[in-house]
Structure formats: C-alpha cells, structure tokens
C-alpha cells in the first residue's frame, strides 16, 4: 500500500511504451528489472520470438486458447503477431495458417539484436541474443497485488482495490468504460487473477 500511496512510481500512459528499446531504462513503472545489452546479460528476445514464416525459430508462441480468451484491448493488439508475410509464398497469412498453428509473440520485438529488427522493422536478424529489459516487478503488479491481498484480508474489495484494478484496465482499453464495480469477493478475486495474466502475458 505504501508503494501505491507514497512511492515515486506510476503507470506509463501507454502499455506498449514499456517494451520499446528507447524506454528500457525508464523507471516510471519498472520497480525492479534486469537491463540487457549484447555485451552484458543479453536477453533471448531475438530470433527465438520470430516465427518460421518470418525467418525465425518459432521457439516461443502464444497459446491459442489464451489468445482467444484475451480481451480485445490495446494490450492484445500489441502482444500478439496474428498476421505476417510468409517468407516462402510472399503472401500475407493469418495465425491459423502459421506453421506453429498459434499466434507469435510481438511484445519484445523492438529490443533489437545483432541486426536490426522491430515491430515495424525487418526480420533479418540471425541472432538469438537481444537487448531490452526483463521486468521483475512493475507498478502494475503492485496495484494488482494490493487489490488481491486487500480483498482476501477484508473479505470484500475496498475502494482502493477497485481503483487499483481499474487503473490497469483504463490503460489497457484506453478509456474508462470497462471499469469494475459491485463484485462479490470471489468474482473480484477471479477478475484480479485474470487481469494479472493479461497484463503480464509472456513476462
């Protein structure tokens, strides 16, 4: 609670801003994280996250059930690659036609590697190593931790608990039209559990 009420951290205005290389050292939302460079603690966010159709290894893919259950918010658009240009046919295909039969993970594609690739860049990298950041704790986590813990402790969600989860949801949807209210303790607990999974997908 002190982190929320007295700490220096807050949510970044845009979820996608957390995963841009230019913001990898920003501490607005990241409370504890590992920063990577190609020469010091490089990450594995490079070619392993690109699909076969993108000249990648398809090592890490999204679960189709998780993707289909994910709410249609701004995070979903950013976190998943659902269409790409097939390297063989040179035609655009959807994830149902991917060799992996699953969407690819888009979240870390701006971090770069030994060659340039990114969300809007090319897919020519042959490196398994990358730069970027691995989050350990974010302010969004603190909000959801408090929401869950206070509901469990008090037997019902309090005003701050609703404020915490709704801050995360406001950013996710880009509006205030998806706020939660009036839930039972059990329903609120499930809502926080689900929100944590969507907010922290692939972390």
Describe this structure in words.
The protein is of the alpha+beta class. The chain has six helices and six strands. The strands form three sheets. A two-stranded antiparallel ribbon has the order 1-6. Strand 3 (83-85) and strand 4 form a beta hairpin. Helix 4 (139-154) runs antiparallel to helix 5. It is globular and about 55 Å long. Residues 114-122 have low confidence and may be disordered.
Q: Which labels suit this protein?
A:
single chain; 203 residues; alpha+beta; two-stranded antiparallel ribbon; 6 strands; 31% helix
Write the layout of secondary structure elements.
Layout: H1 2-6, E1 30-36, H2 64-69, H3 74-79, E2 80-81, E3 83-85, E4 92-94, E5 104-105, E6 132-138, H4 139-154, H5 159-173, H6 185-199
Helix pairs in contact: 4-5, 4-6
């Amino acid at each position: 609670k002190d982190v929320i009420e007295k700490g220096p951290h807050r949510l970044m205005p845009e979820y996608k801003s957390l995963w841009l290389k230019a913001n990898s050292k920003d501490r607005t939302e990241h409370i504890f994280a590992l920063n990577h460079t190609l020469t010091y603690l490089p990450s594995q966010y490079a070619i392993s996250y690109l699909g076969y159709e993108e000249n990648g290894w398809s090592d890490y893919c999204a679960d189709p059930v998780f993707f289909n259950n994910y709410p249609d918010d701004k995070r979903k658009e950013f976190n998943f690659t659902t269409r790409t240009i097939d390297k063989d046919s040179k035609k655009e295909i959807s994830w149902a036609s991917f060799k992996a039969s699953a969407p690819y993970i888009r979240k870390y594609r701006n971090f770069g590697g030994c060659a340039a690739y990114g969300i809007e860049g090319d897919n020519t990298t042959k490196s398994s190593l990358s730069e970027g950041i691995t989050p350990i704790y974010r302010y969004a986590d603190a909000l959801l931790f408090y929401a869950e813990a206070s509901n469990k402790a008090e037997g019902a969600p309090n005003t701050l608990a609703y404020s915490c989860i709704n801050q995360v949801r406001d950013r996710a949807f880009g509006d205030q039209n998806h706020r939660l209210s009036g839930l039972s303790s059990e329903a609120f607990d499930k809502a926080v559990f689900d929100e944590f999974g969507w907010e922290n997908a692939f972390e």
